[in-house]
Fold this protein.
Amino acid sequence: MGQAEVERIKAFFSELGIVPTYLEHEPVLTSEEAARSRGFQLKQGIKALLFTDEKEWTIVDVPADKKADTKKVADFLGWTKSKIRMATPEEVMEKTGCQIGAVPPFGHKEELLILVDVGVYENRESAFNIGLRTHSVKVNTELMKKVFRKAKAQEGVFCR
């Protein structure tokens, strides 16, 4: 649970020649706790959220100080607004291999469609958990564009 995602993400970075800073810290659940434990501003975090319309699944990556807008996500994907919902903790574990609070923005157990809110690019550095609540990474945000391209992520505006 989670350790495979940590290794998958490390390999993903390595393939791209990216050397981020790996961090180990106390277990965190919320973006606020993560920012405090890393010593970063909340807006530097990338929050990964799993959504479904009961047929399909998508990860939506947003700045940690923002909330995802389900209407914008549904519109972008052509999903019915009345059907879209956040995944349960059990579904998150099943689809990503991670507990809530540890889901990375890419590199999940299952190959999932990834949507990236363009607001994540507003910081010089980004930070996010990489599969465990005790492991995160700090990386130059410009390099995250390269990561998201390789992960075939789609960009748009997905926050309120």
